[in-house]
Amino acid sequence: MSMLTPPTGQELYDPLSQNVWRVVLALVICIMIIFKVGRQVRATLKTVRAKNHWIKWQTEELQEDLTYCHPRWPQEARAIQNKIKIINKLKIFIAEDAWFYYDWIALIVMIATLALHIAYYKVDANDDIRFAYTRIRSIASLVVSLRLLKDLRSFPGIGTLIIILGQTSDDFINWAFLFFLIFIPFSASFWIIFGGPSLKPVLHYDKPASLLYSVFRMAVGDDFNLEGLVAAEPDMARILTVMYVTAE
């Protein structure tokens, strides 16, 4: 449905006789969103209640242990009291599965898309709403598609791959941090030598957005206008390029 959006909002459902399928599909989507929100809210409340119950149970157990502490060894009582404080400071809601948070993100994006869909239909010929609607619709398509990976975990083969990718997500974040740790200072160096304010601006390096894209292309081995860099500053071009490619 997101790929069949007409140029104007009124054409979504008018005339009704030719767009009955849109109405039916929109109702199905609304029902699915309501069902998903209800199920997610119930799951969230269940997690919060379980966590509160565990905190209460642990606190009561430790309070009971305090009654058996001997005055001769006060460090034992202090250790139990510190443990009680740590337990009471725990966050009420912590999901063990990261997909739980992703489900909320997907639902929020879907609700925003539905709201803009209604606004796009009601407020016709509004470029701002159309601009926002098309962007959020594009993002929603990606978010909902990635959400399907959660349901594919139970299948052999692809499910194993998805689980492995989930387990290596921390390593990917560490790698991304290291990449940007190298990417940002080298981008600044290229901007100083070849950017817009430099003495010899180079094509694709004279604007911040195009420079960042060119530096990223350099990291993946794509064309990054090496000839222009060498023509502007032969020595610095070679030094920065070799250092950056080697570091990446």
UniProtKB/TrEMBL annotation:
<protein>
    <submittedName>
        <fullName>Transient receptor potential cation channel subfamily V member 3-like</fullName>
    </submittedName>
</protein>
<dbReference type="GO" id="GO:0005886">
    <property type="term" value="C:plasma membrane"/>
</dbReference>
<dbReference type="GO" id="GO:0098703">
    <property type="term" value="P:calcium ion import across plasma membrane"/>
</dbReference>
<keyword id="KW-0675">Receptor</keyword>
<keyword id="KW-0472">Membrane</keyword>
<keyword id="KW-1133">Transmembrane helix</keyword>
<keyword id="KW-0677">Repeat</keyword>
<keyword id="KW-0812">Transmembrane</keyword>
<dbReference type="GO" id="GO:0005262">
    <property type="term" value="F:calcium channel activity"/>
</dbReference>
<dbReference type="Pfam" id="PF00520">
    <property type="entry name" value="Ion_trans"/>
</dbReference>
<dbReference type="InterPro" id="IPR024862">
    <property type="entry name" value="TRPV"/>
</dbReference>
<dbReference type="InterPro" id="IPR005821">
    <property type="entry name" value="Ion_trans_dom"/>
</dbReference>
<feature type="domain" description="Ion transport">
    <location>
        <begin position="96"/>
        <end position="225"/>
    </location>
</feature>
